[in-house]
Amino acid sequence: MKIPLIKEITSTKMHKTTETYFPLKRFQKRYPNCAVEDSEAFDGSVLPFDDYKKGTKYIKYSMTWYNSNRLLTVPGFSGIKTGIT
Length: 85
Description:
The protein is of the alpha+beta class and 85 residues long. The chain contains two helices and three strands, in the order H-E-H-E-E. The two termini are 22 Å apart.
């Protein structure tokens, strides 16, 4: 694989990240029971990518991704799967 981060993520059954970004309003709507203060939000211009919406406040949060690819248990497979089975 050409991108080491993709290889790292797809070759494990679970991947934890501390740098996930979400628009504040969407986060509050999707997770109404999660207490997030407006003071924790920041402008999108400081994000590590260029595809952000101007005037939108973002929050940074942790996320755990679980890989459901059953081929990871077979020796010799790298974890990349294309399509839906």
